[in-house]
Amino acid sequence: MQKEKIIQELEDLKKENRFRTIKTNDKGLYNFSSNDYLGLAHDEDLLQKFYQNYSFENYKLSSSSSRLIDGSYLTVMRLEKKVEEIYGKPCLVFNSGFDANSSVIETFFDKDSLIITDRLNHASIYEGCINSRAKILRYNHLDVDALENLLKKYSKEYNDILVVTETVYSMDGDYADIKKICKLKNEYKFNLMVDEAHSYGVFGYGIAYNEKLIDKIDFLIIPLGKAGASVGAYVICDEVYKNYLINKSKKFIYSTALPPVNNLWNLFILENMVIFQDKIEKFYELIDFSLNTLKKLNLKTSSTTHIISIIIGDNLSTVKLSNKLKELGYLAYAIKEPTVPKNTARLRISLTANMKKEDIEKFFKILKTEIRKIGEL
Hints:
single chain, 377 residues, alpha/beta, 7-stranded mixed beta sheet, 3-stranded antiparallel beta sheet, 12 strands
């Protein structure tokens, strides 16, 4: 390791407006960058109900060991059983969505495998692909026809094929046609992995559950750090795959398990999902209102969900816009390359269920004004 080389690399990142820093934002800012889509993490009534339901002994703040030693406490076992009751398949809880995604791929697939992945899949998915040493092919974002063309070309060459997709995409706010992808399995006999990080909660138990596609999906990954208002992830799969992960996944075997209090909250959210339906339906109204308001203001977006992507272009202009909005009282985070493709730096605007229509409309009008000012520079 050469320290001088590292210093130069950091300086280059600064020049390219790609340098990341950790900071605490003013809590008084109107937050358009939260992934707490249903507002559950800040729902005081819900939190009060949670605290009233359980005795103090349940709020242990550390599991103090891995799942294979003493970390498989009663709560996490109850949680996995509840997930299985709902989804009809066994569940294994991981500490994060990143670990779940990367672990499944690197544990089950190897140099003799072919992995076909949506071009815009999450970094955790690509880490698993790289660690597996499998051949990796990418298809154009959401293009199921392109996916099928690759399957036609390679399905006879490989006996072990994995197709990976997300449902809702966090940078573009669009979603995959997983029903159409599942239909391809009948002909091409591949394994399918689906990540529901940005759809769990917003779509109740998720899009795969709602579309009755669980049996078609070999690995359903449900990270809990977004609308789940928590931390961790469910890997939903056949029993034989669950047992293989327990025995072979390094990130599962050698990680201290999540604290009991976190999985108690995960269980509480799961058990109460049905009572959030009114909140979810009102949220859909808020999404429709927001997208229609953008159209009226001629603010372009390809988004069709609760994640609204406004492409600005270069990193510097996007950062300047984000900083100006912060001065005006709004937190709208700038997403820069290389997280997104070159010349597509953007504001990623997240809607949450506790927002008001008048506040959203006011923000979009301010946003349009500030974008126009940048264009005039």
